[in-house]
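Can anyone check this?
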Amino acid sequence: MGETVIPLADLRYAAPVPAIPAVLAPADGLLADRLGRPLHDLRISVTDRCNFRCSYCMPKEVFDRDYVFLPQPSLLSFEEITRLARIFVGHGVRKLRLTGGEPLLRKHLEGLIEMLAQLRTPDGQALDLTLTTNGSVLARKARALAAAGLKRITVSLDALDDTVFRRMNDVDFPVAEVLRGIEAAQAAGLGPIKVNMVVKRGTNDHEIEAMAAHFRHSGIVLRFIEYMDVGASNGWRMDEVLPSAEVLARLRARWPMQSLSAAAPGETAERWAYADGAGEIGLISSVTQAFCRDCNRARLSTEGKLFMCLFASGGHDLRALLRGGRSDEEISSALGALWAARDDRYSELRGQGQVAAAERRVEMHYIGG
């Protein structure tokens, strides 16, 4: 491995084990961090592997044939993931999102989905169980995912033009296969479907209008995401960020649009609807319009490290508690203490010029988006 992956190795293998409070506090679903933010969403990475090499996430120059991914024994088992998810639900989590890497590369993932689909909130409600995928194998898996209990799906798609798409995924994968996967997900009832487009100025921003035109009248919500400085290996530069305000201006120049209210507290996307009833789009602007103050998400890595922020510089080793014989009550109290101490607001501080340029951060493929 090259030098650029050393910080990630440190983050993976040197995370501290959370302390167990002397007095075990029962989970009551009312957790709040130092900024008063509740815990509502848990994003669970089920693999650090991906079959794409998108430059903004897993550039081939770093994640090459010599890159060492996590060995199988290091990964959380489905039973361990489900146990932790149950504990998180006790603390107020109502939405579970499976991520990667590419989550559909994890063998027998349908088994995990079946287990998570059985979880219930204290008042007996089912959870919002969803998954984010690059869509590469979705066409052959969509029906089984739905049958296992998956509710919704989000597909990452950065261009409709096949040449642009192949260049961005950097493994020469055709866009037609991803579109076929989206159609299969619709047919399987995995909806409403969302499609995420990461916009890089000078790379795929000329595809904005084409993407919007394609997904109008489809029932699919297209979301435009500002290119973010996640991790330390994607060569992020501010001049490659196309602000969401410019994306919206381009769209409104072609189609009249109306602002919509947020779908839920802590929602990351600013919603806009086509005035002619053709559907809606979303704008995720974590670079130019930080939404840290409403962030209610925690992230669990594939080997059981808990990260409180997408831009975190460190995590907490929950796997050590699972495999160290700790009880659910002990793990729950440790989790409560961790969340109560949370004060992460990286994007907000970045916008204020208060982030050190050399600060290391965990890579996106390791904890999902």
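Reply from J.R.: I decoded it. Residues 1-9 have pLDDT under 50 and may be disordered.
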